[in-house]
Write a structure and sequence with these properties.
Elements (H helix, E strand, L loop, with lengths): L1 E5 L7 E2 L2 E2 L1 H18 L3 E4 L11 H17 L4 E4 L6 H4 L3 H7 L1 E4 L9 E5 L2 E8 L4 H8 L7 H15 L5 E7 L1 E2 L18 E2 L9 E5 L5 E3 L1 E6 L16 E7 L5 E7 L6 E6 L1 H7 L9 E6 L8 H8 L3 E5 L20 H13 L5 H20 L1
Parallel strand pairs: 1-4, 4-5, 5-6, 8-9, 9-12, 10-11, 12-14, 17-18, 18-19
Antiparallel strand pairs: 1-15, 2-3, 7-8, 13-14, 15-16
Helix pairs in contact: 1-2, 5-6, 7-8
Length: 381
C-alpha cells in the first residue's frame, strides 16, 4: 500500500511581513501533481495545516481548492489532523459530511475514533488519526488522571489504538508531536514551556508506519517506520540548508516500509548571503535568483545609511539584515530572530538592562507560570 505523507503547511504564514500564500499555492500544485503521478492509496496530512487557529480567508480557499483536487478530482482519500497551530473545531467543521466524500478530518480529540480502513492485495490497513491535544484535554476525554504531560497524553491515545485494532491488520498512525531524538528548527512553536512537550518514540511501538508532523526538517526518528515529512516551505532562515519535500511510503504485506523523499521546488527560495553590503549588491547582477527571499549577513563594521533600501535595489525580496559584529550577548539576544527567543528570556534581559539586576528565582518562577498560562489560553482560543 502506498501513502503520500505531508505536514506543516502553515497556510496563511506571514514571514517578515510578507504573505507566503502564493508560495504555498505554488508548492501545493506540485504536491497535487505528485499525487497524480504516484497514485497513493491515501494522503496523510499530519497537522499544522494552517498557521494560526483563525486563518485568513485566502488560506481557507487555498486548502479548499487543494483538497477538492485530491479527493474529488483524483479520488484519493485524505486523512488530515489538527496540529498545535490549528483551531481544531474550525478545521473539523463538516467532517461528518466530508468523510463520505473521502476526506477524514480529526480536529478535537475523539476517544477511540474509528479508523479509516483500506484494502490491498495483502489485506486490510487501519489508519488512525490522532490530532494534537493538550494533556489536560486528553485527561478529560479519557478519564485518565495519570495524564499530566504530552508523553502520557500520546501514550494514552496510542494505547487506545492498540486496544481497538483488529487482529491481523497493519496499522498506520498519523500524529502531531515532538518525538525525542528529532532535530528542531527555529520556525516551530514550542509545544510547552520548559521542554515538557517531548514524547518518547516508544509510544509508537507495534505500529507499521507513523506519519508525524510538527518538526519542520524531514527526518526519521530511530526506525524508518517513524517519519517526519517536514514543512511545505522553508519558514525560517535557519532552514536555508534544507530541501523541502513530500514523503512517499510503500508498506508491504509484512508491514515493512520503504520511504522516498520527493523534492518540492519553491517559487522563491529562502537563503542567506554574506559579505559587505557593497559586495553583495555588486554580485546581484550575475545572480540568476535575485527574486529569492534573502537574509543579508553583513560584515561591514562601520555605519551604513539605508542598508535595506540599497540591498533591495539589487534583491527586491530581501527580508532581513544581520550584522554579527554588532550583536550583543545575553539570553535575550541569543537569537538574531527575536521571535525565536523565549518571552521569559526577553523579559529577563529587559529587566537586567533597565535595573541592572537579574530576576530573583521566585520572580523567574512566577514569570514561567504566567507565560505558560498565556500560551495555553492562546492554543485553546
Amino acid at each position: 500500500m502506498r501513502f503520500l505523507h505531508s505536514a506543516d503547511w502553515h497556510l496563511g504564514r506571514v514571514y517578515h511581513g510578507v504573505s507566503l500564500l502564493e508560495d504555498q499555492d505554488h508548492a501545493l500544485q506540485q504536491f497535487v501533481r505528485i499525487a497524480a503521478d504516484t497514485r497513493p492509496d491515501a494522503v496523510l496530512l499530519a497537522g499544522d495545516i494552517y498557521d494560526r487557529s483563525v486563518p485568513p480567508a485566502e488560506a481557507l480557499r487555498l486548502l479548499d481548492r487543494v483538497l477538492e483536487q485530491l479527493v474529488l478530482g483524483l479520488r484519493i482519500p485524505v486523512v488530515m489532523i489538527a496540529g498545535n497551530h490549528d483551531g481544531p473545531d474550525r478545521l473539523a467543521f463538516g467532517s461528518g459530511l466530508l468523510q463520505r466524500a473521502g476526506l477524514v478530518v480529526r480536529g478535537p480529540v475523539e476517544w477511540a475514533a474509528a479508523p479509516l480502513v483500506l484494502n490491498d492485495a495483502h489485506g486490510e490497513v487501519e489508519i488512525h488519526a490522532l490530532p494534537y491535544a493538550e494533556p489536560a484535554l486528553v485527561r478529560s476525554v479519557s478519564g485518565d488522571d495519570t495524564v499530566t504531560d504530552h508523553h502520557a497524553a500520546l501514550a494514552a491515545q496510542t494505547a487506545a489504538v492498540r486496544a481497538a485494532r483488529a487482529p491481523g491488520r497493519r496499522v498506520v498512525v498519523v500524529a502531531h508531536a515532538f518525538v525525542q531524538g528529532g532535530a528542531e528548527s527555529e520556525s516551530e512553536r514550542p509545544l510547552s514551556v520548559g521542554g515538557t512537550g517531548a514524547v518518547g518514540a516508544e509510544v509508537f511501538a507495534g505500529f507499521d508506519y507513523v506519519a508525524l508532523g510538527h518538526l519542520h526538517r524531514a527526518q526519521q526518528v530511530g526506525e524508518a517506520r517513524i517519519q517526519y515529512a517536514g514543512s511545505l516551505l522553508k519558514y525560517a532562515f535557519s532552514e536555508a540548508d534544507q530541501r523541502k519535500s513530500v514523503t512517499l511510503v510503500e508498506l508491504d504485506g509484512a508491514g515493512e516500509c520503504s520511504v522516498e523523499r520527493i523534492a518540492l521546488t519553491p517559487r522563491r527560495d529562502l537563503r542567506i548571503v554574506e559579505g559587505t553590503l557593497e559586495a553583495i549588491v555588486a554580485a546581484a547582477a550575475a545572480d540568476p535568483a535575485r527574486d529569492d527571499y534573502l537574509l543579508a549577513r553583513l560584515t561591514d563594521s562601520g555605519a551604513l545609511l539605508d542598508a535595506m533600501g540599497k540591498l533591495r535595489t539589487a534583491y527586491p525580496n530581501a527580508l532581513a539584515i544581520e550584522r554579527p559584529v554588532l550583536t550583543g550577548d545575553g539570553p535575550g539576544r541569543a537569537h538574531a530572530d527575536h521571535r525565536r527567543t523565549r518571552i521569559q528570556d526577553l523579559f529577563a534581559s529587559f529587566h537586567r538592562d533597565t535595573t541592572g539586576l537579574a530576576l530573583e528565582p521566585a520572580a523567574q518562577a512566577a514569570l514561567e507560570r504566567i507565560v505558560d498560562r498565556i500560551e495555553q489560553e492562546a492554543r485553546s482560543a
